[in-house]
Design goal:
Pfam families: AzlC (PF03591)
Shape: globular
Keywords: Cell membrane, Membrane, Transmembrane, Transmembrane helix, Transport
Organism: Nocardia testacea
Membrane topology: Multi-pass membrane protein
Strand content: under 5%
Oligomer: single chain
Order of helices and strands: HHHHHHHHHHHHH
Structural class: mainly alpha
Protein name: AzlC family ABC transporter permease
Largest sheet: none
Number of helices: 13
Number of strands: 0
Radius of gyration: 18 Å
């Protein structure tokens, strides 16, 4: 891990560090919430290691804690994580193939893909992806464990604005791509779809629906 970290350029290293700090605080809130809802501490920690997808984990625990069926919670979590299919298609060279690709796919999430796509070469993207993914794999369940141990002493991350770190970072990473008109049209259409459907659909579904706007970013035949 140390040798991998050294190969990441300083700006990307700072970005990954900021993301890991934010993930740690969010994990602490997640762990405290799960324990307060009556789950044993090992359960959210295990989910953090095996699933490694905060949105679907929060949704799963929320549905079960509210008395819903675990199977319904599982389906809802899988539905939200369906966006990872698109992520995999966006970074095939970073993931690779075979068993190595399967192992790397476990690190697939919003942050790792955005960091990888922001790099100037495939090799830089692969290194940044692995470094960011390894960091999140440590700090997400680690923050969950710490939050569960601290319990009610953990504050709401929204009070400190930590919940705004993720969209701000992702927006900053995609800004260079918005110089292309086709990408701007797709982003605008996706944003409008998400905003219009957010009051009507369960959490996570507006994002999936907005992905349909990606068709607008496909270059015309014969273009670069």
């Amino acid at each position: 891990m140390r040798s991998l970290w050294r190969t990441v350029d300083p700006p990307t290293r700072s970005l990954i560090t900021a993301l890991c700090v934010a993930v740690t605080v969010a994990g602490m809130s997640y762990g405290a919430t799960a324990v307060a809802a009556g789950f044993p501490l090992w359960f959210p920690v295990a989910l953090g290691v095996l699933v490694l997808a905060a949105g679907s984990e929060f949704l799963f625990l929320g549905i079960v804690a509210a008395g819903g069926s675990p199977w319904a919670a599982l389906v809802a979590g899988l539905l939200i994580n369906a966006r990872h299919i698109g992520y995999g298609l966006a970074v095939p060279a970073v993931l690779g193939t075979g068993l190595r690709g399967l192992r790397r796919a476990h690190l697939l999430n919003d942050e790792t893909v955005a960091v990888a796509l922001a790099q100037r070469t495939t090799e830089h993207g692969r290194v940044a992806y692995l470094a960011c993914g390894a960091g999140i794999l440590v700090v997400w369940p680690g923050g969950t464990l710490l939050g569960g141990l601290l319990g009610t002493a953990v504050p709401d991350p929204g009070v400190f604005g930590v919940d705004a770190v993720f969209p701000a970072v992702l927006l900053g990473l995609i800004m260079p791509a918005l110089h292309e008109p086709a990408v701007r049209r797709g982003a605008l259409a996706g944003g409008v779809l998400a905003l219009l459907t957010t009051p009507l659909l369960p959490p996570g579904l507006p994002v999936l629906l907005a992905a349909a706007a990606a068709a607008l970013t496909i270059p015309r035949r014969g273009s670069r």
